[in-house]
Hints:
This protein is mainly beta.
Amino acid sequence: MKHLPFALFVLICSLGLIAAVPTWEGMNGRNSIGSLIPGASYIEALGPGAVGSFANHLSPHTPGEFGNITISVDSKAPPMFFINKNQLWLLVNETAVYPVNMRNTTGTHELPLQLTVGKKKEGITNGIWNWKSTMLFYDTPAGRSNDGLFFNCLTANGLRNVFTSLVPVRPPDDCSIMTLHSFSELRLRAQKP
């Protein structure tokens, strides 16, 4: 009997831990990883930077790994992204979510900002990722914006990477301009009056 208060204390503490586990609305009955986080969807590139007759999606060079971001033709299983607290995230699986970072490439490339995926937020960390209708934008707290324009560029290592700029620029040589979109039904429903 003298251990009853301790056992009661342990029970109450464990209930508090269970209540602290995060959940998302609609988590029960989900049928895909995209429904794990409401608003998660693939991001499609449109414009001259998107080539070919297949859908072009924003993706790390090697799916599920860190590094530079590119535009890939993957109609079977494009990677899922979402925005939370002004940060763009790559949803890899139920246990892996990585930030999309904006890296300063001044001095190494004609365009000043490059998209990368990392384990943690790094590079320029005060930017604001947001959707305007279906189009992805990158803004700063000071009011500068990329106006939704991104560039698919061939780099010195022979790979294509995604860049942007906060000032209007013409596409440099070996770069094509594009916009990035999410046509998630959830986002479209939320935009309706």
